[in-house]
Amino acid sequence: MPMTLLPESMPVSKKSMPELGPRLLTAASLVRRGSKVADIGTDHAYLPIYLIRNNISSKVLACDLRKGPLDNARENVIRAGCENEIELRLSDGLDCILPNEADDIIICGMGGTLISDILSRTDWLKNPHYRLIMQPQSHSDDLRRFLFNNGFVIDDEIPVCDEGRDYVVMNCRFADDYWDKDNELKTHFGSLLHNTDDISRRIIGRTVAYLKVRRESEKEYGDKNLSDLFKELIIQAEEILNES
Ligand SMILES: C[S@@+](CC[C@H](N)C(=O)[O-])C[C@H]1O[C@@H](n2cnc3c(N)ncnc32)[C@H](O)[C@@H]1O
To answer: CB-based burial of residue 67 (10 Å sphere; 0-12 exposed, 13-18 middle, 19+ buried)?
Structure first.
């Protein structure tokens, strides 16, 4: 995509980029040094700029579904002087990315259901070469379920608190020799269940509270079997929490 030049009055300062917060810093820490990166839903392009400025990556595709965010990204990229290393691209998910254009794929700040939909349309990701770095904003259970059912493995889930909100950043890959069962406990809690840090505990507590609400609503109006499943999950999670 051709770059538009900034108006002459716009100051070009390499110091004007905000510092990355812990959430995006954690995602950046999972990028393999020297890899080509695609940042899907880049918005402001702060993460691509950080990766280039810190010599973590030499080439980043900063992609977004909408023109508005991409225009903001373009201004930031030019201000940062990274226009040779960061290419901006209008793309719905990975629809406009070729398999040889990225090694590490970052998808942060979108709901887990939307991330799953994006992954499901991109068959070439089913290759252990690619690393998927994802931070679901909500519905992380939908994302885990998709991953477990489609041959992906979650190597790491890192809990992180940013401006008073708790998040999980996932590091995943396709593993054709590995097939995880759709285990409901893991789907809802991931690997956080055995962690003892405060952030993981808070996330688990919130997930238990959410399951309790869903259990009640299924019991009253919906699927009795689902209500029983949620009850079982709550008991198992609380047992593990009380043990540790
Ligand atoms: C909340 S922002 C997240 C920005 C950044 N990734 C972060 O985590 O701070 C979500 C961005 O994803 C973009 N987006 C939403 N759906 C998308 C899709 N299907 N493909 C690409 N980008 C999408 C939105 O336009 C928006 O810029």
So the answer is: exposed
Going by alpha carbons, the residue nearest to atom 1 of ligand 1 is 109
Domain assignment of residue 198, given as a range: 183-244
Share of the chain above pLDDT 70, in %: 91
Per the structure, how many domains does the chain have? 2
CA 50 – CA 31 distance, rounded (Å): 11
Per the model's pLDDT, the better-predicted residue between 136 and 193 turns out to be 136
Mutate to test the pocket of ligand 1, among 20, 61, 63, 66 (most ligand atoms within 8 A of CB): 66
The pLDDT value given to residue 2: 36
- Please identify, among 180, 203, 233, the residue that sits at the C-terminal boundary of a domain: 180
pLDDT in the model for residue 181: 57
Mean pLDDT, the chain, rounded, equals 90
Q: Are residues 97 and 205 in the same domain?
A: no
* CA 65–ligand 1 middle distance (angstroms): 7
- Does ligand 1 have an atom closer than 6 angstroms to the CB of 92? yes
CA distance 133 to 65: 18
User: Where does a domain end: 142, 160, 180?
Assistant: 180
Tens of pLDDT, residues 105-114: 999 999 999 9
Question: Could you tell me if 196 and 174 lie in one domain?
Answer: no
For residue 88, the one-letter residue type is L
